[in-house]
Design goal:
heterodimer; A: Phosphorylase Kinase, domain 1; Aminoglycoside 3'-phosphotransferase, Chain: A, domain 2; 2 domains; five-stranded antiparallel β-sheet; two-stranded antiparallel sheet; B: mainly alpha; 5 helices; 75% helix; 0% strand; elongated
Chain lengths: 346, 149
């Protein structure tokens, strides 16, 4: 790991011409982010006669990943939201030149002294669940309420009409299943057919969609304050209810279906989101996005399984998500679609 | 094979989490060990029932296809269903059962899509039976997951 230190120091010297004697130390890879290699490190340098020290995060593209995304999407999301007051790390440098670290990467501020709850823990936040839950849903409401053009998020983003959000996302993830399934997937295929037969009403407005807003993808401190919303690599423009449904998907803190993500009660969570976003949750649209999100989850886990099976990426988290998360989402979807099928036939 | 595979896998799970992980200094390596231990725990349980689960699924799908073959009017689909219903699992090796399972699952997708578009008097009943099978089989497949709460 330390072999990266001089290369990162050389890069920082390139980006900070006023700095001298740059030293990089304490590099360690963070576990979990299978869509990027994530390193924490400390950089020290001299500038204007003073010693400066800063804790940084470096996110580098892997050879193969859980989610095929462009790193500039994530970087641009941080850049758009950092000035708004939403808790996100300050983005510093985006680099696509392979000369520095062999693969594209970006550098951002490290938020220190925080933890991320596990999405697979029954009770990820313990005594802070209530306090964190209120912030979690408020922040999501603020993301939905943000004007994507005004904050600079829309630049280089593919525009989408309110009536086409659903079909664009469904096409994207159906293609992933078509390309990556190792065995036929009866439940996923039934879900795709149901989603096509029952399109949702158009989005109330086009919002920023985080794309992976959930338990485990934010940092909180010892007082239960959310300090950083992370993992924006699947962000896009779309229906804000897509994020509401993903955040409340039954996979996160699976044994607590009435407290999405192991935080606060579903009804209260949705009330907070409505208040913060200024929008109403249409139950018909929400149901569509809930089913879609369980399917999107399946697509991600199926893709992860293929990466592992083919040897493209042997990170154990890919094998785990392909086993366990597929198992949960297949079960969730089968029960839900069976009930909808019986309802439709009555 | 003694000690039993399940007991060995549970033992490895405990050793990795209790004796190995605490002595690793790199967070990344600790994360890997935790996930590998968890998957050993799952493997130990799956080892005992994997063939049973797959065999039961294949039998149930064949029975379902035999019933469906007597209902659907599409001659091509009817022939495929009848042929699949008459099939057998020639071996209890997981790889063989799995290959047969995948072929049967592909036909199940075709049948379910066909039934969903049908307004024939038998369609609602057959659609319900397919869903009953899928719900039951997803329950049967459920992986053990230790609580860390």
């Amino acid at each position: 790991m330390e072999e990266l230190a001089p290369r990162i120091a050389a890069y920082l010297a390139h980006r900070m011409p006023a700095a001298s004697n740059i030293e990089v130390s304490g590099i360690s890879r963070i576990h979990g982010g299978a869509s990027r290699e994530t390193f924490r490190l400390r950089a020290r340098w001299e500038e204007g006669g003073k010693q400066v020290e800063r804790a940084l995060i470096l996110r580098r593209d892997p050879v193969a990943s859980l989610i095929e995304t462009e790193r500039d999407l994530e970087y641009n999301a941080y850049r758009a939201f950092h000035p708004t007051g939403l808790p996100v790390p300050e983005p510093l440098y985006l680099e696509t030149d392979l000369e520095w670290l062999d693969r594209p990467f970006f550098v951002m501020e490290q938020i220190e002294g925080c933890a991320a709850g596990s999405a697979f823990n029954d009770d990820p936040y313990g005594a802070h669940a209530e306090k964190i839950g209120r912030q979690f849903w408020t922040h999501l409401g603020h993301i939905a309420a943000a004007d994507p053009d005004a904050i600079g998020f829309s630049a280089n983003m593919e525009p989408v009409a309110p009536g086409e959000c659903w079909s664009r996302e469904l096409e994207k993830w159906e293609k992933v299943i078509d390309e990556d399934e190792l065995v036929p997937q009866p439940v996923a295929r039934a879900a795709i057919r149901w989603l096509k037969r029952n399109p949702p009403p158009p989005a109330e407005k086009i919002s920023v969609v985080h794309g992976d807003y959930r338990t485990g993808n934010f940092l909180y401190d010892g007082e239960g304050n959310i300090r950083a919303i992370l993992d924006w690599e699947m962000c896009h423009l779309g229906d804000p209810l897509e994020d509401v449904a993903w955040a409340s998907d039954p996979l996160w803190a699976f044994r607590q279906p009435e407290r999405p993500g192991g935080m606060i009660a579903r009804k209260e969570a949705f009330r907070i989101w409505e208040e913060a976003s200024g929008m109403k949750i249409d139950p018909v649209r929400l149901r569509w996005w809930e089913i879609f999100n369980s399917l999107k989850g399946l697509a991600i886990w199926i893709s992860a399984g293929k990466e592992y099976q083919t040897g493209a990426n042997r990170d154990p988290v890919l094998a785990f998500s392909s086993w366990y998360c597929t198992d949960v989402h297949d079960r969730v979807l089968a029960k839900r679609l069976a009930a909808l099928s019986k309802e439709a036939r009555q | 094979m003694k000690p039993d595979v399940g007991i060995v896998m549970q033992g490895f799970f405990g050793t990795l989490l209790g004796d190995v992980a605490p002595h690793l200094s790199a967070e990344y390596s600790m994360g890997h060990v935790g996930i590998m231990g968890l998957m050993l725990h799952m493997t130990g349980e799956l080892h005992d029932r994997a063939a049973d689960v797959c065999l039961a699924e294949n039998r149930e799908m064949r029975a379902l296809f035999g019933h469906a073959a007597s209902l659907v009017e599409d001659e091509g689909l009817k022939a495929k269903l009848a042929s699949a219903a008459a099939g057998e699992d020639a071996s209890l090796r997981i790889s063989v059962l799995g290959e047969n399972n995948a072929a049967l699952a592909a036909l199940l997708i075709e049948l379910q899509a066909h039934v969903e578009e049908s307004n024939a008097p038998w369609a609602a009943g057959l659609e319900a039976r397919i869903w009953d099978y899928l719900v039951a089989t997803m329950e049967r497949r459920e992986l053990p997951f230790p609580s860390f709460g």
